[in-house]
Amino acid sequence: MDRRMYFVLPDLDVAKRVEHDLLLARVDSSRMHFLGKRGADLGDLPEAGTAQKSDIRHGMYVGMCGGGTVGALLGGLLYLRPEWLGIAVNPSAMLLLGGFGAIFGLVTSGLLIGSSTPNVHLKKFDQDFEAGRLVLILDVPKRRVDEIGELVQRHFPTVQAYPVDATIPAFP
3-state DSSP call for residue 160? Predict the structure, then answer.
């Protein structure tokens, strides 16, 4: 299981050196996501994508749970009250409508709404972005969290580390 680490970097030069040191420590560049103020020049650093910038993960979770619940309840009501449709409804309607509701909620809430909503975990970095600092979002295996944190802090004492986020998406 991976953990998400956040580091606030003072400028682009430090960010490039941190990236270099992390690559030497065998951290894959696809696990590094740099983020700055809108329009900031990141050079050749790997920029954070939609999955890191938006609230897509939370939206997908809420949509899937909410849609599945509403679909299953609707299926249960149709099973208990067949006169609403005028036909007898099989008990499997709860499962089918629950599955359809989960998929519908996942797509609408997660992919359509969540992808356009800013990530709530990045709200704490607004002042850093305005000051021109960069944020490194780093996804590392749980066993390497301490090693990577010590590496960055030892080589770059000006870098500010934030608590590790234990809930990162399973997909990149």
Answer: strand
Q: What are residue 12's DSSP bridge partners?
A: none
Q: Does 148 score more than 80 pLDDT?
A: yes
What is the model's pLDDT at position 166? 62
Averaged confidence pLDDT in the chain: 82
Which residues, at least 6 apart from 147, have a Cβ–Cβ distance to it below 8 Å? 25
What would the pLDDT profile of 67-114 be if each residue is shown by its tens digit?
Answer: 999 999 988 888 888 887 787 778 888 889 899 999 999 888 877 887
Domain 2-52+125-165 -> CATH class: alpha beta
CATH 3.30.70.120 maps onto the chain at 2-52+125-165
Could you give the CA distance from residue 20 to residue 25 in angstroms, rounded to a whole number?
9
In what order do the strands lie in the sheet containing 2-9? 32-35, 134-141, 2-9, 160-165
Separation of CA 137 from chain center: 10
Residues 6 or more apart whose Cβ sits within 8 Å of residue 75 = 89, 93, 94, 95, 96, 97, 98
Q: pTM for this structure?
A: 0.69
